[in-house]
Amino acid sequence: MASSTGEAGTLTSASSLSARVPFTFPEVDGEQLKSDVPPIPPPCNHVNCEGCWKRYPQSLFPNWSPSQVERSGILDVIEKYNRSIPCTIHRVDIDDRGYFTDPGKYELTEQAKDASWEFLIQSHRPVNTRVRSLFVENMSGPVLQKLGAYYNIEPFFFSSSLSWTPSRFQEEVQPGRGDRKGCALVLDLLAVHLIRNVEGNTLISYHTSGREATSAPFLQERMHYAGQSVYWQNIFQRSPDPTFVLLIFIWVAICAWDEALEALYARICWLETYALDTSDIFITRELHIIRAHYFQFPSLLEDVRKAVVFILDTPNPAMDSLPQEEKQFSRTLLEKECRNLLSEIHRLEMSRRMQDQRLKNALNLVFSTTSINNSKRMRKLTEAAVRDSTVMKQIAYLTMTFLPSSFVAAIFGMNVGEISPGTNETLPHYFAIAAVLTLLTV
Q1: Domain that holds residue 62
Q2: Which CA distances in Å does 395 have to 81, 386, 404, 405, 408?
Q3: How many CB atoms lie within 10 A of CB 196?
Q4: Please, which of 113, 162, 166, 356 could form a disulfide with 73 given CB 3.0 to 4.6 Å?
Q5: What is the pLDDT of residues 362-377, one digit of tens each?
Q6: Does residue 88 sit in the same domain as residue 208?
């Protein structure tokens, strides 16, 4: 989700849920077509430009018309940011010995915009610094413009990051000097812009302000902690290539994936046990929700894989200035580390498939258990119906046996003149009253 250009070139990578393409043709601006301003302005030394950052991105990229800046979302960040919250830049430095240090964080407030620009354009890093990593928290409009103007960042990096649009490309590569490289991973946004240059390497990590997003302090802490390990110390001591810093970011994402799948696996095991012990059909709702997320995971893991392949296929042009033996050693080491990452991604995909199969098995188990329980209930109902039918038959047999004799006894017990002489009632009266009562009853 990034793009950029600069003196030494640009390399940017991104991954996202959306399928938007960052190079969509904007609406044609008639005024821009009539303009005599060159499409590529001369480089700015940031000394007597009177704050060229205030006109970014048009100051460096005249083709970005005001309407395009507005549609890309950059204008909203420039004008509608929260001025009461300072932007904090957390830093990690890597020196030429491969040591990771924390030079401290730097806050950029609304009241000190010009002072922060002077701080940015003046070099404050030690001379032996190989890579300086900047983790931007609560990025404001002025900070976006300052970083973009000073590091000559293509606006596509910010527009793609703001809209979570995937993009990977490299431009203006200068052999023996350097380029720029970026990477972004989503669902949680990870947008990284790496400037690889023989004069100094700089990494910029953009962090969205979402509540559940990975924060700048968290990622800065992970980067600093990784630098304390013997494994990464050996890599940075043996190779001067700053590209290995990007691999740390990818490993952070891989570890997050591993933890997420582990938590989901524990939940799936509990759901399987619960499905065995109960016939609650409502458990299928949670199973379907989890499986819906699993359907999304393959595309996200594929984005991670593409990011690793992109890093592998875009070597650092600045490495051309090194001796062939040292250059080949760094390249071999980078290929080995990328293969390790690709192997981990494949393992995560296999784990995802296995868990998806267990989810499917749990769903089938719930449906099978429910069907078996329904069959048992139907069997009990059938047995009860059979018992009721037997009782009804017995009642019918008893009725058929005693009804004739009871009828005869009732007839002979009637107090009518035909049977008992001297009474006033007759059989016609009996049948008339019985017929009327029968009709009323029916």
Answers
A1: 57-165+186-234
A2: 87, 14, 15, 16, 20
A3: 29
A4: 162
A5: 888 887 777 777 788 8
A6: yes
Place of tokens 């009539």: 34
* Same domain? 424 vs 319: no
Cα-trace Rg, the chain: 40
- Residues 6 or more apart whose Cβ sits within 8 Å of residue 90: 105, 134, 135, 137, 216, 217, 220
In degrees rounded to 5, what are phi and psi of residue 269? -60, -40
Share of the chain above pLDDT 70, in %: 83
In this predicted model, what pLDDT tens digit does every residue of 87-109 receive, in sequence order? Answer: 999 999 999 888 999 988 888 88
Ordered DSSP codes for 108-153: E-GGGHHHHHHHHHS--S-TTEEEEEEEEES--HHHHHHHHHHTT-
Nearest to 320 by CA among 153, 164, 175: 175
13 against 368, higher pLDDT: 368
Q: How many domains does the chain have?
A: 3
Residues 296 and 302: their CA atoms lie apart, in Å, by 10
Highest mean pLDDT among 152-156, 181-185, 371-375: 152-156
* Distant-in-sequence, close-in-space partners of 322: CB < 8 Å, separation ≥ 6: 240, 330
pLDDT, tens only, 308-319: 999 999 888 888
Of 39-48, 95-104, 163-172, where does the model show the most confidence?
A: 95-104
Domain-ending residue, one of 372, 393, 427: 372
Query: Largest alpha-carbon pair distance within the chain?
Result: 144
Q: What is the pTM of this model?
A: 0.74
Distance between CA 431 and CA 428 in Å, rounded? 5
Q: Is 119 exposed, middle or buried (0-12, 13-18, 19+ CB in 10 A)?
A: middle
* DSSP-based three-state secondary structure for 106: strand
Residue 178's beta-bridge partner residues? 174, 197
d(CA 342, CA 258): 14
Is the predicted pLDDT of residue 78 greater than 50, yes or no?
Answer: yes
Instruction: List the structure tokens of 1.
Output: 């989700």
Contact 116, 230 (CB under 8 A): no
Residues 100 and 130 in one domain: yes
Neighbours of 65 (CB within 10 A): 17
